[in-house]
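thought: fold this chain, then report.
action: predict
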Amino acid sequence: MGLNVDLAENGLDLTIRFSPPFRGLYSRSTPTSVPDGFLPDIVNMDIPSGIPESMIGSTLFATGMTLTGTHTMLATYYSAAGVPTYLGANTTGEVYYWTGSAWTYLLRGLSTSTLWWSDEQVGNVLVITNKNDGIFKYDGTRLLPIGAKHICDMESAEVTWAGTNSADTVNVKQGLQGRKITSTGAAVVVTFTPATALDLIDGIGPTARDYTTADRIKFWVYIDDTTKLDTATTYIRLGNAGDTLYFQLTAANWGSLANGWNHVSVLKSAFAITGVTPVWSTIAKVSFAVDATGANTVNATFDDMYLVYASTMPACSVVTSFKNSLIGMNDTSGTSNVNFARVSAPDDWDVLATFPVAENNGDAIVGGKKYYDQVVVVKDQSAHSIYATVSGTTYPAYRFSQSPITSAYGGASHRSIVEGDGAKLYWWTASDIVMYDGTSVQKVSTEVDPTIAPLATRLWSIVGGRLRAKNQLWWAYTPVGATTNTKVLRYDYAQQAWLPSTGQTLENLMNATSSGSDLLLSITSAGRVLQQGSGTTFDTTAISSSLDLPWVSGPDPERMVRWHEAAVGFADSTGTITVKYRTADHPREMATASYSTAQTLTLSSSSEKGRVFIGARSRWLQLQIINVTGAAFQILPPVTIKAIILKQRY
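observation:
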C-alpha cells in the first residue's frame, strides 16, 4: 500500500492517498508507524492482488453433518478410486464414519480422554492413533487395531449366521450391533460361515510376516451373569465346514471373566485341536457355544473378533508415513521414540524397529511430517530430520540417520504443521510461526508478533490447513482467556499478507480432495463440519468485516488539521459499508480513542460516489471501513482524504 501525502502550493491544502497494493496486518508497531503497504488491523477480509475485499464464508458441508459430543478427530480415508470417507471421534469414546447422510458408529467404548487423534493414510488404510487408546486402521469397511486381521464383526452384512441368536444393538463395541446368544440350561451353538474360507496364517499385504501360533485371537463378549455361565461347555471354535477338524477354546481358558464386557485375548497355541489335521489357513466355519449351569439362563453377546500380531506398534501421539512405511512417534515407552513398520505393511512391527530422536534433551516429540526424502520431527524446543535407507536391508534393520535442523525453534502442535507453497513446511512454536524449506528453519511471523506472542494455553489445540483457491494457509488457535479456537490467522503466501479472522470456533481444520476439488474442511466446537471458502456467511451468521487504515497527520504532526472528507471507491454490490473515523491530538490518546460514524455508503446506488464528510479537527486521524451485515464488498483504491492544515498549533 502506498501512502502519498500531497501538499498544495499554498502550504495548507492536504491530500492523502492510500494506494494498492495492501499487504495485510502489521501488529508489531503502533498505528502511526506501520510500514508502507501494511495495515494496523484487518478482520475477515482478503487481499487478492493487493485489493481489499470481504472474505468468503463457510457452509455446512453436508446436511446433518454434525458430530455428537466434544469431537477429538476429523480425518479422511480415500478408496483406491480416490473417493473420500470422513471419520470423526469424540470424548465419549466413539469413532464414526460419514455415510453421506449420517454419522455411523465404527467403534465405541474407547477412552473418554480429551487427547486428540493423529491420522495418516498409508497405502490402502487410514491409520489413526492417540496415546490412550492405541493405533487403529480403517480400510473403508471397518476399524480394527493395527496388526489385526478380521474374522467376524457380527454386523447385519454377515448374513450366514445359523443357530438361535439375535442382533444386540444395546451392548455393542464395534459397528451397530453384537451377536447375542441366550442359553436356558442347554448349550446353544451358533455358527458363522464366511463367504471365503479364512486364512489365519497369511499376513496382510504382500510383505507382512505370516501369523504364527504365538499370535493372538481377540474378541469382545458381554456376559450378564458369569456365575450362571458353564465355562466348560461354552466355547469358540474355528474349523472346517463339517466340524470334524477344528481348533476349540472353552471359556475356562478365556481368562478372568466379569459381568459386563470382557476383552478376551488368547494365543492361537492355546486352542485345543480336534481331528488329525485342522488348518489355520482354511477356516470355513466359526462357532460360538453358550451354556448355562443347571436350569439357569445366561446371555452372552459377542462382538468384533479378529486375529492380531502379539507385538504391535505401541500407542503413540503422532503418526505419519515415510517411503510407504508407517511411522509412530512419542509412544508410551518414551516421548522421544520413533517407531517404524515394515515397508508396505503398516500392520507389521518389530520391537527392534524403534529409535529415539535427541533423547534426554529435555523435550518431547510434538509432531512430524514427511518432506521429500526425509521426515521432519518437531520437538518442544528443537526440530530434527530423519532419513532412511531401506533398499538392500532387511526389516527391522532399516538404516536410519538423524540430524538436527534447529534448536532455536520447536513446535506447539502436530496439527499446526501445514505444507504450503513451494512444498515448504510451516508450523507454530509457542510464540512464532516458522517455515522449513529443506535447508533451514526461518521465522515468518515477525509482522504479527504481538498477535501470536500472548498464547499461553491450549497450544496443542492449534490446527492448520490450506485453502488453495485463495493461496492461503490457515491456523485456528485459542486466544488468551478463551477455551476454544475462536481466532483464525491466515497467511496469503502469494501476497505475503497476514489476515486475521474471527467469528468461528474452529476446533479442527482438515484438507480433503473430492471429485478433483481441493477442500478445506473444519469442525466447530459444536461438531458442525463446515466447508471453508464457501457461501457468504459463517455457517448462516453474517460476517463482520473491517479494515483499519494507518493513522495519518499533516506534514508536521504538531499542527492541527481540519479533516474535510474522504473518498472511498468500491465495486458494485448489494448492502452497505460504513466509514468511521477517530481522532487524537497526541499518540498517547490513540489507545483509548473511539470511532465515530462518518457515513454509510450504499454499494448498489448509482448516485453514491463514495464521498464521506468528516468535519473533525485534530492532529491525527484514522479511518475504518466496516461491514457488519455480511454483504460482500470490494474496496477499489485509492482511498483519499482531503484536509486543510490550520495555521494555529492548538
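thought: worth noting. The helical segments are 449-452.
final: C-alpha cells above.
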